[in-house]
Amino acid sequence: MISGLLGGFGKWSRLTGSSDDDWIDRLNHIWTVVMLSLFAVIVSSGQYVGDPIQCWCPAEFTGARVSYTKSVCWISNTYYIPNENEIPRDDTVREEAELSYYQWVPLIFLIQALMFKLPNVAWHMLNGYSGISLDKITTMAEDTLLASPEKRYEKIMYIAKYMNRWIETHRDWHYNFFVRMRQKLSNILCFCVGKRDGTYLTGFYLFVKALYCVNIVGQFFLLNEFLSMDYNLFGVEVLSFLMANGEWKASPRFPRVTLCDLQIRQLNNLQRFTVQCVLPINLFNEKLFIFLWFWLLFVAVLTFINFSSWVYDIIFKENKVRFVRKYLTILGQLETGFDKKVSRKFAEEYLRGDGVFVLRVVGKNSSDMVLTDLVQHLWKVFKEEHCKLPNKDDGLGSDPEPNEKDVMNGDVIHTKGNNYNV
């Protein structure tokens, strides 16, 4: 139920123009990117439209000096010393307490957004090398939901024939030493050499999924370095403080009152001042980074669970057979032992990993009704064009109809272009 609800929000194709992945991917490369971009706009507005810093200057400072002080303290790094502590005289201690992030918060949000978008960019740039337009297939399948019965049948039949042409075009028609070596390599380097072995799309998609996982973990380390704090535990500290005190107070990680050192040169006389400044922008930064911590954790959990689910579905071969048989059973196509044996060949040797993957993506972006019809058409095309029992006319047998006893004994089904042993 929750997956379906969130999946519906994830189909915001107006932002991407494509629907060739699942809703967890869109949670990363659409919703998170939009959120981070919005954060960048909010903080930029506070910096460039409002007054991001105010400084308490000595009485002798004129208006020009006050403006100069504010500008110097904004572009240089202020530092935070709690009120109960004395201001250290050692410059090294002051440097260690510097806040070096507040000027660059909009930029870091945009960099984060770019990092969340890059795996999707790689997926769109390279999945076309599989020889099939996954985006067009899923779009056509999605369009059939509201189409008339005639148009719906026509589009699904077109998709089935298109997939059949793609499957047959990207198949090895000979078998030699080099083909065997490439097949072994394709088990390891799926999307590098697995186009004709039916593993390119599945391998590349798992690679992209892994990129999303690496990115979400890297985001925490990036913010650790950027904020110069242990950001990994920030959300835990917030929850612990709220549970202990019942209310939230300003965090020392995002201080609103800081100190600033500046030097003013008058001829050969160099005067040094320490002024106290207020950073209203940290009021926004603190809330945004608290929300971002919980959002990153939420996305990380879902992304890793989703990645594990895809690995399980793709790695274990029996899952392909089970997936296809589920829809054939709904259609009442598996009534005999012959049908069950042929359905295994249909999944493992005809569709293979990439074909089943395309069906899974179609199902995630349309509905089970559309996917059921598509499987039915592919099954029909497979049996009509690639699978028929020998008959008297071709001299290969005498039974025009499937004989379950012969099939169970391991006979060969005569095919057009391929022999699928059952």
Please provide a written account of the structure.
Residues 392-422 are annotated as: Disordered. Keywords: Cell membrane, Ion channel, Ion transport, Membrane, Transmembrane, Transmembrane helix, Transport. The protein is elongated. The chain is built from 17 helices and five strands. It starts with a helix and ends with a strand. The strands form two sheets. It has a three-stranded antiparallel beta sheet with strand order 1-3-2. Strands 4-5 form a two-stranded antiparallel sheet. Helix content is 63%, strand content 6%. Strand 4 and strand 5 form a beta hairpin. It is mainly alpha-helical and 422 residues long. It has one domain.
